[in-house]
Specification:
6 strands; Thiol Ester Dehydrase, Chain A; 168 residues; 32% strand; 6-stranded antiparallel β-sheet
């Protein structure tokens, strides 16, 4: 766990602050109703419900909504570990692969258990100053515990140049 993880956790797990964060930084996630239900150093879980706004014409959840929830379950672990980092670290999705197994209806929970690998890659990005990548897996399950989809999100992280170095 990085030094500022606890501060980020307290901020993002507060129900009102989480909604305000979503509205400001991820408005489509806010509209879709993404809900962060778990954030621990090793794991994060995000829920999304099948409803009118998240539907597709085939009576299930739109793949883009599933993708957004899966990406958020991996990205929130990255964000928690780079929060107020010195040097600051930028992050970007550079690739995504997905597999769909069942019709997504009801409540779908995406879980990412790659927290330890994310902690390691953040450390590497800080130490080397080079861009590093990590493939992070998020698995979506329905209320019956059946796997609906799996997503493999490739993140690129890179430490930003220090302001004192760029000012010279």
């Amino acid at each position: 766990m990085t030094p500022n993880f606890a501060a980020f956790h307290a901020l993002i797990m507060h129900p009102i602050k989480f909604r305000l964060y979503m509205l400001a930084k991820l408005p489509m996630g806010f509209l879709a109703g993404l809900k962060l239900i778990q954030l621990e150093p090793g794991q994060a879980a995000v829920q999304v419900k099948y409803k009118w706004l998240t539907q597709n014409p085939f009576g299930s959840m739109y793949f883009a909504v599933l993708s957004m929830a899966a990406e958020f379950s991996t990205g929130i672990l990255c964000l928690a570990n780079i929060y107020k980092s010195d040097p600051a670290i930028s992050m970007l999705v550079v690739k995504m692969e997905s597999h769909f197994y069942k019709k997504a209806v009801g409540v779908i929970t995406f879980t990412c258990s790659d927290g330890d690998a994310i902690i390691d890659i953040v450390k590497t990005a800080k130490e080397t100053g080079e861009g590093v990548t990590l493939v992070s897996k998020s698995t979506g399950v329905n209320q019956n515990g059946e796997v609906v989809a799996e997503f493999f999100i490739t993140w690129s992280l890179k430490a930003k140049a220090s302001k004192s170095l760029t000012a010279k």
